[in-house]
Amino acid sequence: MTQRALLLVDIQNDFCAGGALAVAEGDSTVDIANAMITWCKTRGDAVVASQDWHPLHHGSFASQHNVEPFSTGELAGLPQTFWPDHCVQDSEGAALHPLLNQRAIDAVFHKGENPQIDSYSAFFDNGQRQQTALHGWLQQHGIRELVVLGLATDYCVKFTVLDALTLGYDVNVITDGCRGVNLTAQDSPQAFMDMAAAGATLYTLADWQETHA
Ligand code: VGL
Ligand code: ZN
Predict the structure, then answer these.
(1) Residue of the nearest CA to atom 6 in ligand 1?
(2) Pocket test for ligand 1, best of 29, 70, 120, 121 (most atoms within 8 A of CB)
(3) pTM reported for the whole predicted model
(4) In whole angstroms, how far apart are CA 166 and each of 68, 108, 135, 193?
């Protein structure tokens, strides 16, 4: 059997209720994440997580440009949505959700540390210029298959999944373990379609458990 890892994307306070960039029902990803963690640990799969981890004056923050949050512009020569200040390094908002079973996580990978460029994918920044340590870690552990869930469907989950496919991983997405920002209503359904079209296999938690008994 190929080595597999569960990849938990950005299940952080700022993307959950009361957070700076709260995603509707963001907290509801936690129970699904914990169920998958238990499932994976039982089988000896690795469990890793990404964490959006911005310096105080990150260029993706609307506050840095004196523009309204959720307005659009350019950063590092790329189209950029400017976000409320969120996931500032070492802040409470950047912490992983307190109910997430963090003891089970084997390694955490930070992204978005370079103030000049945003980083949705857990593998690369948005310009594909620099890489996080995630791919190297997975390679070192012989991992070829990923199960992905987390926040947000239409940003970090989507770009993480697309990069993972490009890097050659077999990628499964647990759809009910994801929630989206949905700046427009169709963004999350569209993101799931984009991931599937690129080669990801979509499951609900129940589907996954039934088909992988
Ligand atoms: C994310 C917007 C800005 C995410 C991170 O985790 O999906 N979205 N930073
Ligand atoms: Zn961010």
Answers:
(1) 156
(2) 120
(3) 0.98
(4) 34, 21, 12, 16
